[in-house]
UniProtKB/TrEMBL annotation:
Classification lineage: Eukaryota, Metazoa, Chordata, Craniata, Vertebrata
Domain of life from the UniProt record: Eukaryota
Family stated for the protein in its record: Belongs to the IUNH family.
Domain Inosine/uridine-preferring nucleoside hydrolase: 6-313
MF (Gene Ontology): hydrolase activity, hydrolyzing N-glycosyl compounds
Pfam family membership, one: IU_nuc_hydro
Record-given protein name: Inosine-uridine preferring nucleoside hydrolase-like
Organism: Salarias fasciatus (Jewelled blenny)
């Protein structure tokens, strides 16, 4: 049986690194390319972070493409320091002076369109950052979404709880117009792993300790990049999000990836049209679920609500036992 063909679009922070490692280790997945976007860090950092992850896992043959450096509209919000200024916890010193030569010459959006056109109806696109590259892809090639097998998105809200503004999740808040375009115009099967979905399926911190203390290069890498990062600090557990979700370890992007890798992982979802709010001091960037189809849209997405946490834990554990022979 053929492998599942995957393109990963990422703003490579720590949780993206985790998600990419999960895809790298999945025996049934073939990664056609990794496309980079701004988000958790500036675009140059994102590109270097992806190269690092591939290097740690000894999978540097996978092509990496440079994409959008900012949102469609406006100057963009200041970069989040959730995962440190460089996106990987600000602890890595050994910069590769040759990194730019390792990035493909082709622009990420062109690469996405080409790879999907070469493999029509076979590619699963997993979007882990702001959706700017995806919005540009449908503008350059209006038929692009129909050539996809499916789209998985980490981002948005299902309960209106925000993590960077009152009502908006980071990836959507960084480029609301792109999130809007994607959720209006990508008519392929679409699965949204929202901020609250990730938080509601979090894991105990004891699991996190076990995860990063495995005896393998990928685990040691993850232990290093999370070592100084407040997002992984158990002493900062009483931060704002825990008002809603409790003190859990949440590897956000890994949920969207896990859902793509294992169709049986998601145990409950809501099928309905959605729309991203573009106006408002409070609502801009929020995803609204249209459960009664007030908007009269023809296309519904799957908004994930529950997953098999035991299965997810196993995928996480295996992802840090790298490099390995497939
Ligand atoms: Ca991300």
């Amino acid at each position: 049986m053929g492998k599942k063909l995957v393109i990963i679009d990422t703003d490579c922070g720590i949780d993206d690194a985790q998600a990419i490692m999960m895809a790298l280790v999945a025996p049934e997945v073939e990664i056609l390319g990794i496309t980079c976007t701004f988000g958790n860090a500036a675009l140059d950092n994102v590109c270097q972070n992806v190269l690092r992850v591939l290097s740690v896992c000894e999978r540097s043959e996978i092509p990496v493409f440079r994409g959008s450096a900012g949102p469609l509209v406006g100057a963009g919000n200041p970069f989040s320091d959730h995962f440190g200024g460089d996106g990987l916890g600000d602890v890595l010193q050994d910069k590769d002076p040759e990194w730019e030569k390792k990035i493909q010459k082709e622009h990420a959006v062109n690469a996405m369109i080409r790879l999907v056109s070469e493999n029509q109806n076979q590619v699963s696109l997993v979007a882990l950052g702001p959706l700017t590259n995806l919005a540009l892809a449908v503008r350059l090639d209006p038929g692009f979404p129909q050539k996809l097998r499916e789209l998985y998105i980490m981002g948005g809200n299902m309960e209106g709880k925000g993590n960077v503004t009152l009502c908006a999740e980071f990836n959507f808040a960084m480029d609301p117009e792109s999130a809007y375009v994607v959720l209006e115009e990508y008519l392929c099967p679409t699965y949204v792993a929202s901020w609250e979905f990730s938080c509601r399926n979090g894991l105990p911190w004891e699991f996190f300790e076990e995860l990063i203390n495995q005896d393998a290069p990928a685990a040691r890498f993850m232990k290093t990049i999370t070592s100084q990062c407040s997002a992984y600090s158990q002493t900062s557990l009483k931060n704002k999000r825990d008002v809603f979700f409790g003190p859990l370890f949440v590897s956000y992007d890994a949920y969207a990836m896990a859902a793509c890798i294992d169709g049986g992982l998601v145990t409950e979802s809501i099928s309905c049209p959605v729309r991203v709010e573009l106006q408002g001091a409070i609502g801009r960037g929020m995803m609204a679920l249209d459960r009664t189809n007030v908007l009269n849209k023809s296309h519904s997405v799957s908004v994930l609500t529950k997953c098999d946490v035991a299965k997810f834990s196993q995928l996480l554990m295996a992802s840090l036992r790298q490099p390995c022979t497939k």
